[in-house]
Fold these 2 entries.
Entry 1:
Amino acid sequence: MRPLSHSSINLYLDCPKKWQFKYIDKIPEKPRHFFSFGKTVHDALEYLYGGQTLPPPNLEQLLERYEKRWISEGYQSPQQEEDYKTQGRRILEEYYAKHIDSFRLPYFVEYEFLLKVDGVSVRGFVDRIDKIGDDALEILDYKTGKAIPKSRVEQDAQLTMYQMACEELLGLKVEKLTFYHLPSQTPLTSGRRSGDAVKELRERIVTTAKQIQDERFDPKPSERKCDWCDYKPLCPVFKHLYAAQESPEEVPAIRSDAKLSKLVDKFGKMKEDLKEREAKVEEVREEIVAALKELNYIRAFGKKYEVTVHRDDHWDFSKEHKPKVLEEIRAAGFWDSIVGPLAPKVQKLMKDPNLPLPLRDRLQRLGKFREQTTLRVKKLAEEE
Ligand code: SF4
């Protein structure tokens, strides 16, 4: 079996079918601009730190390398590419200005590791490893994407894997784990992972490898994932929408089952009518509420129906203030009054691939699995 990496394990946990398309069937995904951008900026930093002698390259040399090794794949327009190029230049200039005075040669740059975890091969690349004193290490991983919450740095399995590999292969203790967020020049650092965290990761690696060996490649669909998935036209979940095809992009969507197709259209039409009716109901509701308010009534009668208005206080909290609101509630000891055992957040947590396996096991033993079905409907473009 091919060695597993942090990203391939995550991909498997996200959708085993997608893993199969990518790693077994070896069907390439479309190039994405954010991967190209990340690779180009990483390459420039590898150049900055990769020479084994001092002084390091100057800013001009660094930017020259950046321009020369620019990867153009995946950008949606020349303008988008130009905007990213400018952003990358800014990132490198700011990085250089911030770090050049304290520059020292790292212990390793782009350190490639290959190790066995209970018989399973695991591979990875660490962006940079610095020595702390004589016998400790700091692991750094550069990020070029969105801002990273501090909680992620404290739990992320990628850094746990790097710690495990470096300690095992280099024989030195890792003291610091850092995600360096390049767009904001912010290092986010946590201390070393606990033995339990490493143990959980080892278990996750072994379980994932076992499932792959057992050829468990069931699709795990969700709107968020499937909308962006290049394998959608090949995926069994969506096969009713696509004809058998050689090139997924060239074949138009057709309905392959007449009875199912009729049901889908019937359902779609009913949902559409329902939506229209709901909009009308809402209009009338608002008129009635306004009239009751004006007349200072709480109840009104028609010939066949009556309505009564119930008023309730409702507070809206902005997204920005939500964490603070939750913190206040927790600190005051009222947490249990707002979080029930079936709160949506618990469901979300159960789907989190970073959830420690022993905790997942304990929770699963306390609960009962039930498949919840949601049927989403979307109107197709009218045929000409
Ligand atoms: S379309 Fe969805 S379910 Fe199918 S392989 Fe892609 S992510 Fe998985």
Entry 2:
Amino acid sequence: MSLKSGPCPSCSKNSNIPPGYIEDLIRDKINLGADLVEEKVYEKRLQICSSCDSCVNDMICMKCGCFVHIRALDKIARCPHPDGDKWMSVL
Ligand code: SF4
């Protein structure tokens, strides 16, 4: 799942996601010392999001409004899908 820039797929009116914005958020999270998942868990979570019908443009979860690249980093984060946590298999 690649990182994108451009109009926000969620609100799309006047919002723009500048190049590097999501990468900066990821760097901030790492630098803040957040408890992060291992890389293989992160990649698997993103694969699951990529095939989820609630994921817009491989970027935003429409169940919670988050950037999936950011949420998937967090060890204590759970997938908010109402049918059940789709990340459960990779905890
Ligand atoms: S519902 Fe879960 S699997 Fe789907 S996009 Fe959101 S976090 Fe990812």
